[in-house]
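User: Can you recover a sequence for this backbone? Please restate the input before giving your answer.

Assistant: Of course. Working from this structure:
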């Protein structure tokens, strides 16, 4: 199989040089012109262990994989003989990968095999980190290296991964916050939490600009948390995004007009404070609220604001909500009954300590057409004894169908 070259004889020792470019073996006997030896000697031509450091290579593809214990990188080693760098070193058994720093390998390495002089290894890891690999024969370690990084994956399982907002509704005061929590599982192994991912983002499901302000808090035990707040009423329906994937699941945070107002700065005013008790004349009760969480911010857009009597009894007058303009909530108040109402205002959670009173009085303005004055009798003796009765009946100028009663003065 090999190539044999006779060297010569020295002191009765005949020497031959044997080499081979082909793996295998020759079991040699020696022969004279008349006799062949029964004894033999074997030379095996094995794959060498000493490779050329310059030409031999190690390559990892891909260089970064998900640390999910499933995804793999292939590390390929090609060796050339140190004695002849033009010749591939094939058929070597026992080739190994090792960390360049000599430490324990983070991932799991499996030898695949050799094809056409390329020795292949499969590498995977369930732990984030990296391995800088060198390759080793029984006698040599490569100076070249290839690194495989085990990263938090960007492809998550859509079914098992979740997004949750708590609470789902907050005051639109620019202070109160909701926490949006994202938990991801690997698409390659949905039983494994996708931890350590950097660059996770929230986005609106409809692709438009986020209304609120989103701040990333951090990750704890595989839960990625974001703080959300807004100074503007409305809502955001959030999805979460990695560098390669956007969630199909979503969570909505609504920014509502708050129900908790600042008792000191919020106000209630009645104008005028006194009206005719004619069921027509009105007083306007105006309420201005400021957030308890930020008393510099008007609490606008609240729906369901109510007036109530401070003493908790039934309101004497009739109250009609007019609406809100620039943060001022207005109510119209009238009454056909004399008396008064001391009003407070109420949200779903808070009642004001401040109050405003509207008094319903006898009116001083009467209807000239319908009001009457009658003397009976119209003529009496001027004796200082006889009397005539003058009777006055007044009707409200604001409602001539209503008697103006109880007027004093």
């Amino acid at each position: 199989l090999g190539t044999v070259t006779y060297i010569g004889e020295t002191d009765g020792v005949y020497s031959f040089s044997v080499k081979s470019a082909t793996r295998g073996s020759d079991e040699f006997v020696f022969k004279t012109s008349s006799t062949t030896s029964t004894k033999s000697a074997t030379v095996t031509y094995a794959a060498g262990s000493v490779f050329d450091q310059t030409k031999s290579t190690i390559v990892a593809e891909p260089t970064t994989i998900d640390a999910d214990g499933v995804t793999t990188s292939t590390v390929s080693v090609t060796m050339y003989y140190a004695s002849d760098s033009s010749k591939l070193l094939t058929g070597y058994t026992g080739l190994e990968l090792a960390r360049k720093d000599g430490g324990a390998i983070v991932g799991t390495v499996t030898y695949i095999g050799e094809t056409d002089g390329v020795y292949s290894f499969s590498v995977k890891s369930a732990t984030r980190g990296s391995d800088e690999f060198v390759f080793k024969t029984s006698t040599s370690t490569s100076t070249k290296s290839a690194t495989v990084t085990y990263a938090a994956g960007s492809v998550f399982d859509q079914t098992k991964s979740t997004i949750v907002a708590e609470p789902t509704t907050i005051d639109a005061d620019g202070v109160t916050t909701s926490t949006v929590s994202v938990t991801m599982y690997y698409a390659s192994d949905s039983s494994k939490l996708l931890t350590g991912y950097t660059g996770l983002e929230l986005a609106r499901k409809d692709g438009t600009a986020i209304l609120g302000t989103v701040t990333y808090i951090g990750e704890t035990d595989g839960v990625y948390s974001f703080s959300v707040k807004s100074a503007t009423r409305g809502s955001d329906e959030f999805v979460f995004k990695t560098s390669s994937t956007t969630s199909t699941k979503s969570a909505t945070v609504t920014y509502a007009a708050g129900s908790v107002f600042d008792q000191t700065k919020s106000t209630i005013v009645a104008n005028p404070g006194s009206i005719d008790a004619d069921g027509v004349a009105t007083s306007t009760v105006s309420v201005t609220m400021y957030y308890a969480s930020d008393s510099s911010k008007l609490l606008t857009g609240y729906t369901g604001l109510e007036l109530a009597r401070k003493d908790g009894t039934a309101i004497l007058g009739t109250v009609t909500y007019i609406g809100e303009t620039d943060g001022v909530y207005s109510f119209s108040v009238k009454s056909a009954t004399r008396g008064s109402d001391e009003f407070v205002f109420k949200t779903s959670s808070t009642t004001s300590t401040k109050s405003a009173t509207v008094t319903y009085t006898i009116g001083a303005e009467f209807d000239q057409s319908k009001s009457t004055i009658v003397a009976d009798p119209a003529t009496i003796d001027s004796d200082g004894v006889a009397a005539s009765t003058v009777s006055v009946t007044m009707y409200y100028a604001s409602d001539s169908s209503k008697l103006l009663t109880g007027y004093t003065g």
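That completes the design. The mean pLDDT is 94.
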